[in-house]
Design goal:
Function: Nucleoside triphosphate pyrophosphatase that hydrolyzes dTTP and UTP. May have a dual role in cell division arrest and in preventing the incorporation of modified nucleotides into cellular nucleic acids.
Number of helices: 6
Family: Belongs to the Maf family. YhdE subfamily.
InterPro entries: ITPase-like_fam (IPR029001), Maf-like (IPR003697)
Catalytic activity: dTTP + H2O = dTMP + diphosphate + H(+); UTP + H2O = UMP + diphosphate + H(+)
Order of helices and strands: EHEHEEHEEHEHH
EC number: 3.6.1.9
Bound molecules: thymidine-5'-triphosphate
Number of domains: 1
Number of strands: 7
Length: 202
């Protein structure tokens, strides 16, 4: 059942995973994306993901305002996911060699996945309130041989994903356990999003 929202909800993301996750909980929403560059200044993972999530939501809101003249009674949602291993931030790999390097470092060890969520909540007056949050999940990965890593890269799964893996795909074979929200690893802590929308009476 699709929940009829009181406010218009706009997901500012090109990620197919985020779209699926929001659909999964039955929220009615539209997708708008912006291809503006994403840059961050912070060095702390919880801050980086919130900064980037807010930038994504802000860019989409700005383009919405340009296109439609104003933004009222709307919630624009942005999100960003990074993997952190040994205090190093891993985004999407730029090539297969980097994917190999990332996966080699994650194999047989524990890392953290952080997803930042930013919600720009526009009222009737067109004024926006910002809500930002960072969710952390601990992921424990089994040992992997170099051949297993190479085969996984050959599957094509790693290249558009932070940390070069997708927990929801073939990489499931190497997940020992997680602590925290599974959906956060896939790219959107949907329970957090739903609970916020509920609290906002959206
Ligand atoms: C760790 C992990 C990440 N991912 C994905 C989620 C995100 O799509 C991607 C991280 O990249 P992001 O830069 O967070 O998002 P994106 O560029 O895909 O989409 P947009 O900026 O338009 O919202 O990695 C998985 O699908 N599974 C996983 O297990």
């Amino acid at each position: 059942m699709i929940k009829q929202n009181k406010k218009r909800i706009v997901l500012g993301s090109a990620s197919p995973r985020r779209k699926e996750l929001l659909e999964q909980i039955g929220i009615e929403f539209e997708i708008k994306t912006s291809d503006k560059e994403e840059i961050y200044e912070s060095t702390i993972p919880t801050e980086i993901v919130q900064e980037l999530a807010l930038m994504k939501a802000g860019n989409v809101a700005m383009e919405l305002e340009e296109a439609e003249g104003n933004v009222i009674d709307t919630i624009v949602i942005g999100a960003d996911t990074v993997v952190v291993h040994d205090n190093k931030i891993l985004g999407k790999p730029s090539d297969e060699a980097e994917a190999f390097h990332m996966l080699k470092s994650l194999a047989g060890d524990t890392h953290q996945v952080y997803t930042g969520v930013a919600m720009l909540v526009y009222g009737e007056d067109g004024e926006a309130k910002e809500i930002c949050h960072a969710e952390r999940t601990e992921v424990f990965v089994h040992e992997m041989s170099d051949e297993e890593i190479r085969n996984y890269i050959a599957s094509g799964e790693p290249m558009d994903k932070a940390g070069a893996y997708g927990i929801q795909g073939k990489f499931a074979a190497y997940i020992d356990k997680i602590e925290g929200d599974y959906y956060n690893v896939v790219g959107l802590p949907v329970a957090y999003v739903y609970q916020q929308l509920k609290a906002l009476d959206a």
